[in-house]
Design goal:
It contains one helix and 17 strands. The protein is mainly beta. A hairpin with a 5-residue loop joins strand 12 and strand 13 (215-217). It is elongated, with a radius of gyration of 56 Å.
Length: 259
């Protein structure tokens, strides 16, 4: 009979014998509650009692961007001094209306410095291109370049007392006397009256023929054609004057006869 004291010894010997007879590739061995396959390459960390675990953080890869070249912007400098040009020759006056004195003009191809504006009346105040000081330029045909934001607004000067217009200049009568066939005592008077307009404030022109009632013409008229059939040697006296609300200018006169 085996003594109970030998049971533990026999149990250890039996376990050792069985372990030696196990074939390779047997069932997985349990290590600290974690199964590791004999063919696995996975590394399993076995906690160690009392050890301090240190975690090392592996930084994520950071994408590297190569900046694209930036286009170079070339700025064209803008003149800070406002300049004006015109598409039509434009008078320049002492105020914003034709009742003000004419003191200069800005012609096509010229430019002038702008020093102020009268927005409500569409006028620019510029350095007088024909003299000293400034004058008022109508903006109808004007093109302004440069910075106009800081230009001061001008108030119109007092309206001047109206003046009679300037009289016409170089008044002449071009005549063509044509005898009528079969009527030796008759002529066709073919006439053209011409003059230069010197006024800038006229309401029109009056034309007088042989001291008769005036024939009214519009402003800026400089030529009138006429035709008569009369005997030869009959004189014609022509007079022309400019007028406005204050009255007429001085008259200019010519007398012609045929032939």
């Amino acid at each position: 009979m085996i003594s109970k004291k030998l049971y533990p010894v026999l149990f250890v010997l039996l376990a050792a014998t069985l372990a030696c007879n196990l074939p390779a590739g047997g069932p997985p061995t349990v290590v600290s509650g974690t199964e590791v396959s004999a063919t696995s390459e996975v590394l399993v960390e076995v906690p160690v009692t009392g050890a301090t675990e240190t975690l090392t953080t592996i930084p994520s890869p950071t994408a590297t961007f190569t900046p694209e070249p930036t286009a170079t912007i070339t700025l064209t400098p803008t003149s800070s001094v406002p300049m004006v040009t015109v598409s039509e020759n434009t008078n320049c006056r002492t105020g914003p209306a034709v009742v003000f004195d004419l003191v200069g003009a800005l012609l096509i191809g010229q430019q002038a410095v702008v020093v102020g504006k009268y927005t409500i009346g569409n006028y620019w105040i510029i350095n007088n291109p024909n003299g000293s000081g400034t004058c008022w330029l109508w903006g109808q045909y004007a093109t302004v370049t440069g910075n106009t934001v800081g230009l001061p607004e001008y108030a119109p000067p007092p309206t001047p007392t109206p003046q009679p217009p300037a009289p016409p200049k170089n008044f002449e009568v071009v005549k063509n006397c044509i005898p009528l066939p079969g009527l030796p005592l008759k002529f066709n008077y073919i006439l053209i009256l011409k003059w230069e307009d010197q006024a800038d404030n006229e309401d029109g022109y009056n034309l007088y023929i042989n001291n008769g009632a005036p024939k009214k013409l519009g402003p800026n008229v400089t030529q009138v054609p006429l035709a008569f059939t009369l005997p030869p040697g009959v004189p014609f006296k022509f007079e022309v004057e400019a007028f406005n609300s204050t009255g007429p200018s001085a008259r200019r006169s010519k007398t012609v006869t045929c032939p």
